[in-house]
Give the backbone structure.
Amino acid sequence: MSRLDQIRAKVEAGERLSFDDGVFLYDEADLFDLGGMANLVRERKNGTFAYYNVNTHINPTNVCVYRCVFCAFRADLKSAKGYVMPDEQILERAAQAEARGATELHIVGGLHHQLPYDWYLHVVRIIHDANPRLHLKAYTAVEWDWFARLTGRPTRDILGEFKDAGLGSLPGGGAEIFHPEVRDLICEHKADADAWIRIHREAHQLGLRSNATMLYGHIEKTPHRIDHLIRLRELQDETGGFQTFIPLAFHPDNTKLGHDHQIKKPNILTDLRTMAVSRLMLDNFAHVKAYWIMLGIPTAQLSLCYGADDIDGTVVHEKIYHDAGSDSPQEMTVAELRRLIEEAGRVPVERDTLYNQVVRTERTWETGKPVALELVHA
Ligand code: V47
Ligand code: SF4
């Protein structure tokens, strides 16, 4: 039996793939074989559904003490590009989101040199108090680690305090590439892999769900990517608290990394390969997301047959990828998202952040049953 056939037999039997299997698939498997296997797992877990949500991004500040070399979003303290949103602007964004029928706000930003811990807490509290129905998916592990550095308090206590103030879940950012051979070169001083994993573990133990990401297509090599996926899989075995994995393609424009290493954006073949290998390695993740802002619409559509079952949401006001050269639109309407999914031969399902189906009437929305579970137990 060929190596590929051995791996295919494991996938068909629902057996776990090893580190070496992952490296082989990434580097040597034919893309169509890879897609076929990933699609098998995708359809086993999520049938023909493809999920989207109605959300808005808020980046309360872009001023950041760190200098991750892949980041085009950050600004120095005194730079003309730097901003801190006043409360009114934050509340207006949240009110607009609510008025447009959003169920989720995605809140992340820089680590400001001078703003105190209480400001970040205040942001969550005022939004939640004004819009209690909006799910607040806020702050990456890098930010939680920063709050611990600011206060000297354990991250577990801080997460608990934010949960009481209205935090709903954690986004998956800040993971980049866990392996120190890469991490030390691209984001040396911020939370390391152990801190990222520990913070997500603590969040899960507090009953908060979270997402996970991997930034690919820069200086990392295949073993670093597989190592990253396996570290996530191990934490998921322990807690079951991750909802979605989101592979993030490096966008080089306006970044030091792109400039110094002359790196181009990964091509569609790498995007699809990464999506498929992620789906196959992360056997204990329910969902894999093709973030359309980052991939562009055609690749996001194709990804729905290469392991992905989710395309994120309407988004609105996206900055991180547009500062780094993304030419996808800033936002998509629900009709456009649904059409994108239908054109790819999938059935669109609106979900809330926690993957409950959203049922809409003319004026309002309600949370229905967990979609995936309904499917699995049908
Ligand atoms: O942590 C920053 C990445 C992340 C660039 O949880 C870049 O649902 C590529 O995590 N090129 C933030 N990537 C975005 C993020 C995310 C996005 C959508 C949904 C969710 C979710 C999470 O973006 C950062 C970093 O890994 N990033 N700069 C860049 N130039
Ligand atoms: Fe700061 Fe985040 Fe950009 Fe790093 S990725 S420089 S932590 S805003």
Notes: The chain has 17 helices and twelve strands. The mean pLDDT is 94.
